[in-house]
Amino acid sequence: MTLSETEFRVLYSRLAPAVRARCRAICGNNADADEALQEAFLSAWRARHRFDGDKPLAWLQTIARNASLDILRRRRPWTDDPATWLKQIGRASCRERV
């Protein structure tokens, strides 16, 4: 089932608040949540031909979760090396104690 533009607009108007709440819970702030929401619906629009018509909220929240995690990955201050980020976390903890 491919969603028409009208159907997609209806889907957005009905589900955007719930999807944004999911993004906010993952991202931790409104600015990143808004960006994730925008990216999620853009991705959903591009993938609308793959939507099977079943459980639209679950479909959109999965896309939103992935968009939110992508934003967090781009914003994190450390590399993928666990030793590096453990050192950075340790330094932050030491600074907080001083």
Write the layout of secondary structure elements.
Elements: H1 5-27, H2 30-46, H3 56-75, H4 82-97
Helix pairs in contact: 1-2, 1-3, 2-3
Report on the architecture of this protein.
This protein is mainly α and 98 residues long. It has four helices and no strands.
Report a brief summary of the structure:
The chain has 98 residues and is an all-alpha fold. It is built from 4 helices and no strands.
Strand content: under 5%
Overall pLDDT confidence: 85
Unreliable spans: 92-98
**What is the percent of helical residues?**
over 70%
C-alpha Rg, in Å?
17 Å
Secondary-structure element series: HHHH
Helix-strand category: mainly alpha
Count, helices: 4
Kindly report how far apart the N and C termini lie: 59 Å
Q: Major sheet, described briefly? A: none
Choose one word for the global shape: elongated
Query: Could you give the count of β-strands?
Result: 0
Oligomer: single chain
Keywords:
98 residues, 4 helices, elongated, disordered C terminus
